[in-house]
Design a protein that fits this description.
Bound molecules: pyridoxal-5'-phosphate
Number of helices: 11
Mean pLDDT: 94
Number of strands: 16
Strand content: 15-25%
CATH architecture of the largest domain: Alpha-Beta Barrel
Largest sheet: 8 strands, mixed
Structural class: alpha/beta
Radius of gyration: 24 Å
Order of helices and strands: HEHEHEHEHEHEHEHEHEHEEHEEEEE
Length: about 400
């Protein structure tokens, strides 16, 4: 599970060097290459930068992705600087006029427009900047029949949503788009939808087919010959309870190849975040103390959910591996080493809140003060979604291993 490069560093760092995020870039490179190889050649792969925008991560992905999906003015600037020249698709709700102007100045390649007002703001900004061709994908809440996913309870398209446009609103947008009525700067290049996260490959394929069919009908109904792109979003599932059960990219790639055959002349595009980078990162720390309360065992770790908020937001146990420290950190204190054996233990951090739990009542053979704990699946939605400044503990170290 833990790669040997990460294991070595995790045990070599001193206690005061911890906690630390350790990223295995060769592992990320191998994973991204495998994902790319499983996909049909014509399918475009964008990486959703919000999952982990660290520059070494963005740069490691660069040879394997077509471009990056960015969701704020900050991400536009950041990703442009980290991977100059890579195509950007600018999505996300509530884009300000200032962000749109700046994105136009930076030559952002695609705009995923989320509302009628945003479309008007973008058109105005493009006219002011005398830019005569801006490529737009409308983000649509494509309606899905409730049986299309075998009744899976998910926040799906067709439900009320702050994101994207309902189908009726799409109709109202068409007159603002060139090729569909207007002679303005905005060109309708395609449809974008990001309807759900955490789907397995068969469910993702069902959703992708529904989006592509919807786009085809729209284009046929209105004679939109330039509508050649369909972005079916991200949300490829990862399983925190079973880190080894990976999204079936091979099956997904086959299904997307079939879908492409049914939609000749259209470019299919996906924009996963989590499923690309989650496995390449570890949050490594040490056990400071072990104690019992009310008959239950608690291990207090250096750090906590202010560094890795993932288990608190997703209400799961973050998967981890214990790295026993026997030789290098031999217990030298003149009292017994706090420890638990063959007993469920709750791993908590240093915050003064009962929510600072990383894993709850997990069974470990043995855990002692001074042992290291390496939390896996910390490469996406981990550091960058966390409330770093709460309680003013030191920041973790960051190590991007690349050999
Ligand atoms: C967050 C997001 C993604 C990536 O989702 P993952 O679950 O990380 O794959 C892709 N597209 C949009 C529009 C998003 O908001």
């Amino acid at each position: 599970m833990i790669t040997s490069a990460v294991h070595t560093l995790a045990t070599e760092l001193t206690g005061d060097d911890l906690p630390a995020y350790v990223y295995d870039l060769p592992a990320l490179r191998a994973h991204a290459r495998a994902v790319r190889d499983a996909l049909p050649p014509g399918l475009e792969l964008y990486y959703a930068a919000k999952a982990n925008p660290a520059p070494p991560v963005l740069r490691t992905l660069a040879p394997h992705v077509t471009g990056y999906e960015v969701a704020s003015g900050g991400e536009v600037e950041h990703v442009r600087a980290a991977v100059p020249g890579a195509p950007l698709a600018f999505g996300g709700p509530g884009k300000t006029e200032g962000e749109l102007r700046r994105a136009l100045t930076l030559g952002v390649e695609r705009f995923h427009v989320e509302s009628e007002q945003e479309l008007r703001l973008l058109a105005g900004a493009a006219e002011d900047a005398r830019i005569d061709a801006v490529d737009v994908l409308l983000r649509v809440n494509v309606p899905l029949a409730s049986d299309e996913l075998g009744g899976a309870a998910l926040a799906m398209g067709g439900r009320p949503s702050p994101f994207g446009l309902d189908p009726e609103a799409v109709q109202r947008c068409l007159p603002l788009l060139s090729g569909a009525g207007s002679h303005g700067p905005l060109r309708l290049r395609g449809i974008h939808a990001h309807l759900a996260s955490g789907l397995d490959a068969p469910a993702q394929l069902t959703v992708a087919a529904a989006i592509a069919d919807w786009a085809r009908k729209l284009s046929e109904r209105h004679g939109l010959d330039d509508l050649t792109e369909v972005n079916v979003g991200g949300g490829m599932g990862v399983d925190y309870a079973h880190p080894d059960r990976r999204f079936d990219w091979a099956a997904y790639g086959k299904g997307m190849a079939d879908l492409a055959l049914r939609h000749p002349g259209r470019t299919l595009r996906i924009e996963p975040g989590r499923a690309l980078t989650v496995y390449c990162g570890w949050y490594v720390t040490e056990v400071l103390d072990i104690k019992h309360s009310g008959g239950e065992a608690f291990a207090v770790l250096r750090g906590g959910t202010h560094h890795i908020r993932t288990p608190a937001t997703k209400q799961h146990d973050q998967p981890f591996q214990v790295l026993p420290m026997d030789t290098t950190a031999t217990w030298t204190r003149p009292w017994a080493r706090p420890a638990v054996r063959e007993e469920p233990v709750t791993l908590v951090g240093q915050l003064c809140t009962p929510k600072d739990v990383l894993a709850r009542r997990v069974q470990v053979p043995e855990l002692r003060a001074g042992d290291r704990v390496a939390f896996a699946m910390a490469g996406a939605y981990a550091w960058n979604i966390s409330h770093h400044d709460f309680l003013m503990h030191p920041r973790p170290g960051f190590h991007y291993l690349d050999t």
